[in-house]
Amino acid sequence: MWQYFMPTKIFFSQKVVEKNKEVFKNFGKMALIVTGKTSSRLNGSLDDIENVLKSLSIEFYTYDKIEENPTFEQIRQAVKELESYSFDFVVGVGGGSPLDSAKAIAVLLKNRSLPVEDLYDASKYNSSLPIIAVPTTSGTGSEVTQYSVLTDDTGFKRGFAHDLIFPTVALIDPLYTMSMSVSLTRSTGLDALCHAVEGFLSKRATLISDLYALESMRLIKQNLPRALENQNDFEARAAMSFASCLAGMVISQTSTTLAHVLGYPLSTFKGIRHGDATAAFLDVVVQKAQSEVPQKVDKIREIFGDIRKFIEVAGLEIKLQMTDEELEKWTKRVLTAKHMQWTRGTFDEFSIRKLYERMRAN
Question: What is the pTM of this model?
């Protein structure tokens, strides 16, 4: 038995915003654009959106204060600044942080008395402003998922899910990814890889999600090395945008697994980019799944060979200073994470601590 629900309408092309500008007319007369400070200006996405909205006589307010790994407090500040406006829809522009923030803000502006903590209780709200997602990286897949990941007041990343925050429309243009640095290309590409592999091995995987996951993995194997070697390889960039979208569609059905929750503390407390932090644990997730789904692990190996070597060749190497107190705190947090229930294999406190310790600097 399986089910499939992914209500986002996807437009994928060069000049996608301009070519499909009539889409914006369906959402109202006042738009909120949620983005970061610089990248959306550099890659041209924000200018494209603002120009299209002006041409359609749609008013807009651009909120560009989103930072990497957005926190509860940053979302509170955004809502406070924006609460005097009456928006008809929200346009999220950028990587995972702006897109996830746009989702949270869309719910909170529609439910003015809802505290940010209650985003994690789906029974507390049943409405949201419509969301248009314009990704400018190829990794998060947030443009096609019902997830948003924020950093809570204790410093830990937490994801919430609600069908309301599936973007109504995703506008994907690989041109927006051409300005990504090598390090960002690697991190976002590895994030997409983790989504595809974790989703493929998840206990929630379905026949359809497996099809998307395998194709995403094949595209990443062929094109991530090309994109890293030559930043101007548009074909590779386009393939990675497609792979990221497919991987996002995978986790919209399967959720993510242990690698993600293991990586969260490295991002929030050590400044390691999300995709890098997650990929550092992916090989063990694959290895542990061997006992339960050997045929799936075989398919992963057919594509990548040794997946740890593929990740290392992409340039990932993490060595960190970490205290025993941090190790204990992170390990206990992982053991209680909901991701554990979808993860293949057996992980206990000792094995999880060992996974962190292998990245400990001497």
Answer: 0.96
